[in-house]
């Protein structure tokens, strides 16, 4: 039950992220002088999920994770 609930939360998060990102891309295109047809935009769906693994099996490279704090040692928060 917990896994199903977590996948539901993940699906909703992906939907929100995709919607926000699509809006930002359209804004960037229009700001750059490239018009976006509303007819074309009507065919775009925020339900795309190719970047999500539905089983929830993600693998992260710990070496990359460890390298990031070292890159930011001189940064001011």
What does this structure look like?
By secondary structure, the chain is mainly alpha-helical. It has one domain (2-71). It has helices spanning 2-31, 38-41, 62-71. The protein starts with a helix and ends in a 6-residue tail after the last helix.
**pLDDT < 50 stretches:** none
- Share of residues in strands: under 5%
Q: What kind of sheet is the major sheet?
A: none
Number of strands: 0
Instruction: Write down the overall mean pLDDT.
Output: 76
Order of helices and strands: HHH
Number of domains: 1
Using only CA atoms, what is the Rg? 18 Å
Could you write a compact summary of the structure shown?
With 77 residues, this protein is an all-alpha fold. It has helices at residues 2-31, 38-41, 62-71.
Detail the topology: elements first, then pairings.
Elements: H1 2-31, H2 38-41, H3 62-71
List keywords for this structure.
mainly alpha; 77 residues
């Amino acid at each position: 039950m917990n896994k199903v609930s977590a996948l539901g939360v993940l699906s909703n998060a992906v939907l929100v992220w995709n919607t926000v990102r699509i809006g930002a891309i359209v804004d960037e295109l229009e700001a750059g002088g490239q018009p976006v047809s509303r007819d074309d935009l009507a065919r775009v769906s925020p339900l795309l999920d190719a970047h999500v693994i539905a089983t929830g099996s993600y693998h992260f490279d710990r070496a990359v994770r460890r390298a990031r704090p070292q890159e930011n040692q001189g940064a001011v928060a």
